[in-house]
Design a protein that fits this description.
Blueprint (H helix, E strand, L loop, with lengths): L12 H32 L2 H28 L2 H22 L2 H6 L2 H33 L5 H30 L1 H18 L17 H14 L1 H17 L5 H8 L3 H25 L6 H21 L3 H29 L5 H30 L1 H22 L1 H4 L4 H8 L2
């Protein structure tokens, strides 16, 4: 096997433009998420309102995902990406206007809440396209031998942007207020929109242009469910995100459990992503190709344990440490999942496979927000987090026992084949 080059993908000019674009987009997106969560909970003081935000994003993202994958496989990716980012910038602009002092004083609180939910719903619709487009675009920008390295850098950039967005989102609420923070979000998204045009248009590799939606969706879903490695990896991450995630109710811990305010909320959110970033950069030097399946199972098991630790903690620095560990473990699992998908997915099916991934994992972020909000309402935030961590541990043990293909997965051969391609 050739010597590992941790900077292989970064030697490609267009890929650097893509990373910069993704950095601005996710930075703004992460800040927007924090601000919306903070604003809505500050108005309602009801965990159910956080669940509604998750539901508004989950419903369109989940049900549109398979159709989005079909469209992405049929269309040119660069222009489609620009169109989606442009539409998302309009959402950011509307949220900024909606939270300005003039509008807040002239409209009822109820109207503002409903308007926020409506904008989040439209954002969920757009999110169903982002995953398939990004997954497909990476494979068109970098050569096959750099797929794994590109997946690592792309996910690392996403997490870096998420940690900065989460951190600054919390601080900016305190420093400059909600409306001004959302104005910054709009500017960041607008910059990412302009950066898309530094990437050239890409060829459409799907040989079945014009294929019926029914046949197209059937082919994508069948491929995923027949591939035990992909299906097992997606299922593990789905359960971890659905039950083990705490992001949607961190605002409750920040305001009511730990009493650390908006800046503490920013630190709690940032600690998750910081852990992910560190492990992701490490994996650029230490590839995860050997014993891939076992590493995935162990990382998600550690994630579940750290969630239980966070739920039981009443000390701020201990909570930050537990979230940092959870982020580190989650970072490893995300890199492994993305690498499995990049190496195992045919070029003409990337949009559809990524859409199934979005349905399993991406949309489970929003559904997880619903689950977290409802569980926090019924059980209390502490019990809800501990329960989620326990569910994650049980899932790892069951899949690790039943899915031998995933457990014994080793990607060394796949990576060597791509290097020789």
């Amino acid at each position: 096997m050739a010597k590992n080059d941790p900077y292989a993908a970064l030697r490609i000019k267009e890929f650097n433009f893509f990373l910069l674009l993704r950095l601005f987009l996710v930075f703004g997106w992460s800040m927007q998420f924090i601000v919306i969560e903070w604003q809505v909970y500050s108005i309602t003081k009801d965990p159910w309102s956080l669940a509604l935000i998750g539901a508004c994003e989950f419903i369109p993202a989940f049900f549109m995902a398979p159709f989005a994958g079909h469209i992405v496989d049929q269309k040119e990716k660069r222009n489609l990406f620009a169109l989606c980012i442009g539409a998302f910038s309009l959402i950011s602009l509307a949220l900024f206007i909606l939270t300005t002092k003039t509008v807040v004083t002239s409209l009822s609180t109820q109207f503002i809440l409903y308007a926020i939910y409506a904008l989040v719903f439209f954002g969920g619709f757009l999110r169903s396209f982002f995953g398939p487009i990004i997954f497909s675009l990476i494979a068109l920008i970098v050569p096959k031998k750099s797929y794994a390295n590109a997946a690592t850098w792309s996910t690392s950039t996403w997490k870096t942007a998420a940690v900065l967005g989460s951190l600054f989102g919390g601080f900016f609420i305190s420093w400059i207020g909600v409306a001004n923070t959302l104005c910054i979000v709009f500017i960041l998204v607008l910059i990412s929109f302009l950066l898309t045009f530094l990437i050239k248009k890409k060829p459409v590799l799907n040989t079945k242009i014009g294929e019926s939606v029914k046949e197209s969706l059937k082919a994508g879903i069948t491929f995923v469910f027949e591939n035990k490695a992909i299906l097992g990896a997606l299922t593990l991450d789905m359960v971890a995100v659905l039950f083990g995630g705490t992001v949607a109710i961190l605002v409750i811990f920040a305001q009511d459990v730990l009493a650390v305010g908006s800046q503490g909320l920013g630190i709690l959110n940032a600690s998750i992503s910081l852990g992910s970033i560190i492990t992701m950069f490490v994996t650029t030097y230490i590839p995860i190709s050997k014993n891939t399946g076992k590493k995935l199972l162990i990382s998600i098991f550690i994630f579940g344990l750290s969630m239980i630790g966070f739920g039981l903690s009443s000390i701020f620095w201990v909570s930050v440490l537990m979230l940092f560990i959870s982020g580190a473990a989650d970072g490893i699992s995300m890199i492994i999942r993305q690498t499995i998908l990049q190496l195992k997915t045919p070029d003409d099916m990337r949009g559809r496979v990524s859409s199934v991934n979005s349905m399993f994992v991406g949309s489970s972020n929003e559904l997880g927000a619903v689950e977290s909000g409802v569980a926090a309402k019924l059980l209390g935030p502490v019990t809800a987090v501990v329960f989620g961590g326990c569910m994650t541990l049980i899932t790892v043990l069951v899949i690790g026992t039943k899915n031998t293909v995933l457990r014994e997965l080793d990607l060394t051969t796949d990576m060597e084949a791509n290097e020789n391609a």
